[in-house]
Specification:
The complex is a heterodimer of chains A (609) and B (334). In chain A, α20 links the parallel β22 and β23. Chain A is an alpha/beta fold and 609 residues long. Chain A folds into four domains: 221 residues, 3-Layer(aba) Sandwich (Pyruvate-ferredoxin Oxidoreductase, domain 3), CATH 3.40.920.10; 186 residues, 3-Layer(aba) Sandwich (Rossmann fold), CATH 3.40.50; 70 residues, no CATH class; 107 residues, Rossmann fold (3-Layer(aba) Sandwich), CATH 3.40.50. Chain A contains 21 helices and 23 strands. Chain B is α/β, with parallel strands linked by helices. Chain B is built from eleven helices and 14 strands. In chain B, α1 packs across α6. The N and C termini of chain B lie far apart (64 Å). At the A-B interface, α1, α8, β9, α10 and α12 of A face β1, β2, α2, α4 and α10 of B.
Amino acid sequence: MEIKELDSVVVRFSGDSGDGMQLAGNIFSTVSATVGNSISTFPDYPADIRAPQGSLTGVSGYQVHIGAGQVYTPGDKCDVLVAMNAAALKTQYRYAKPGATIIIDTDSFGPKDLEKAQFQTDDPLQEMGIDQDRVVACPLTTMVKDCLKDSGMDVKAMLKCRNMFAVGLVCWLFDRDLEVAFNFLREKFAKKPAIAEANIRVIQAGYDYGHNTHSTATNVRRIETREKKPGRYMDITGNKATAYGFIAAAEKAGLKLYLGSYPITPATDVLHELSKHKSLGVTTVQCEDEISGCASALGASFAGALAVTSTSGPGICLKSEAMNLAVIMELPLVVLDVQRGGPATGLPTKSEQTDLLQVLYGRNGESPMPVMAALSPADCFDAAYEASKMALEHMTPVVLLTDAFIANGSAAFRLPDLSEYPAIQPPYVPEEMKGTWTPYMRAENGTRYWAVPGREGFTHILGGLEKDNQTGAISTNPENHDLMTRLRQQKIDNIEVPDLEVLGDRDDAELLIVGFGSTYGHLHTAMDELRARGHKVAMAQFRYIRPLPRNTAEVLMRYPKVVVAEQNMGQLAAYLRMQVDGFVPQQFNQVKGQPFVVEELVNTFSKLL
Amino acid sequence: MAYTFQDYKKGQPRWCPGCGDHFFLSSFHKALAEIGTAPENIAVISGIGCSSRLPHYMATYGMNTIHGRAAAIATGCKVANSKLDVWQVSGDGDGLAIGGNHFIHANRRNIDLNMILLNNRIYGLTKGQYSPTSPRGFVSKSSPYGTVEDPFRPAELCFGARGHFFARAVATDAPGTIAILKAAHAHKGASVCEILQNCVIFNDGTHESVYSKEGRQKNAIYVEHGKPLVFGENNEFGLVQDGFGLKKVEIGKDGYTIDDILVHDAHCQDNTLQLKLALMGDGDGFPVALGVIRDVEAPTYNDAVEAQIEEVKAKKPYHTFAELLETNDIWEVK
């Protein structure tokens, strides 16, 4: 048997929404991660609420990218496509690389299936121009039934195990140790051992099928592990990591975590996740609207909680008013914006970076508010932790931007040790200020003190009307308003954020690639590819957008050419041009609701060199 | 420690002379002194409007927030820290127009808030537009030919949202106001107190019939749980049930005796008759009902949230972030 060594491989599991493709992908990525491969995954859900079985709109996919070294994205196109039915082949083949291995279940390619998938002939492979030699066509359903015939299960239950056959086959293809998969299933179905054992039998059957027939199909490929960071890992989506970040920050700060939210795609999973963890004292209120989500969080903040509101772009429109109130009342609040395609309802399940200027400037008055953007699913944890810390320590609302791509995508997450994270110390008003304290007295860094209700001697009134800098009473004095406006700005400008990191050819790059947030992986991979071709390229990805890192101007002006690449019409570029005198970058803008395609980035950037 | 009204008082109110807000504020200070919660354990939260200036005149914690959102902000405040006494103060525009959604949901959820609705049937701060409680045909700057819409009746909205407490007082009636504020505080759950008051500049006399003591003797009925529903200068009138409605009768006439008069039941789960009482007086020949009209015990949202947290804490084996991590599928890379 020939074993080919590969650097990285992309597998796409696709089938009907009910075929369990996510679980299949999950098991394969876990098995790979356990041997130390780097992983990145992305689910592709259908937009329909419940499409008919076997129809084109009902297909869901789950893409897994595993690598010997670091992988930063789920991959543009796949090396192996698993198509559990005809509709999946029809819609998903375009995500396959030329020459990719295609695994199909011939039992799901009957005349009815072909009709539902709108094939014109009875030979779908020929119709789509797929080379027979690259196809592993197996009667998967029949074999699953055969394998489980003495299990006592009914047919419906048996068919639920079909996805495991595909997992077994793919595991054989990549020379994977099945023991990890078995353990995964035994844990997942701990309360239903019979189900676990059935699934295990089917995985083994899939593996054996590959082994027994390999000469006729394709060769085993192996992804060795080059870079290993020892530790304990779990698979995590961006939304889950964000929720975990808030929980960790509240625990570290010794505060109750309060989430005010209203269901909205693609942010709702944060509400779901936090709602589960009442045993940690997490309080979640599903409010009557987005407005109340933010307003009630602000009320909770006043009462002394770590207050969070979660939403997506349309929700930000509605929350802006209460976000502004948080600015003038100078209370801590984290506003999570899981961006999606807009404007209005736009593309609810798709990803964009089009809310940047909205969160920076979309409020009445001078309303400075820190803005951060998470880089990857796992980075959502640190970003949520840091946003919470910033809000609490600087008495300000903070916007954390993620998006549908990293919120739903997953990656291996090294279990964090909270004791290694920096302390969170809100500026509680010192007891000795009793009698002399007024609400807008400031610490050295310009931050207002926090007097939480319940403390005797510190009763005070906050509000949306401008206040006197000294007494805290309502004031319309022109000089005072000008001063308060500057003080609120100064407070944000004073926040220390890490310097912008330059990756790649730091010293002699001809081109600097600039982006923010979730495009980190695609831009990094594009840079690696360009450098592999011999070009001198560097990149800088913004994680802190307001305030900007202190070295921003220096980095942006250091290189002969700069391209700002973002999934909007140039919002970061416009913002940077406003902040950095004389900065005129090239721009790469795409607003398709889909992640960048590395190949397109490489081609575009090559032309700039 | 005993408190006096001075302990809750701060600053010099800036409302127009004669405004109902002055009367209410004074009664509010006195009621708080009688209730006796320490000022630092009270949060007074308002929206925007003339009456929403009120927190600035309180020596408690407070927020004068944004238009319409007081109930939402108060909700978060109470749920995050249920030890606080939370009073939410809104006018008719703030509470029922722009804030109508939060008003009904705070009632539906039964958050333990004391919700004060200062109803002068006008937008005063923006200088005289009709409000959602202005009567049909009301002439104002924004309705020079009269409005062509019907008003909300606050009790109806409160009951429609499954509210469990509704009381009413006239701002100039200090004992009546203090009594319902104390009852609202004693009630566990969302309690709505409608305060009838005049806007001397833009809507003077809107509650004229009950604004003076004499007027109330003639045109109001003070309802009290367990007491017969009698009214009039010498309590010579009473209310009886008549088919699906109420009827005003004179005691001693047409064979009606005091024993025929309906006895008020504020604790009755069914709000049918309470609603009828609350809606009286709209030019229908019936007196305006004042006092606690509905006061029914029900589980509060904030208590239920806390109870659920305790329940889940006892059931689930993880209580720290580190323990939470361990509940996931974990693998080790060596």
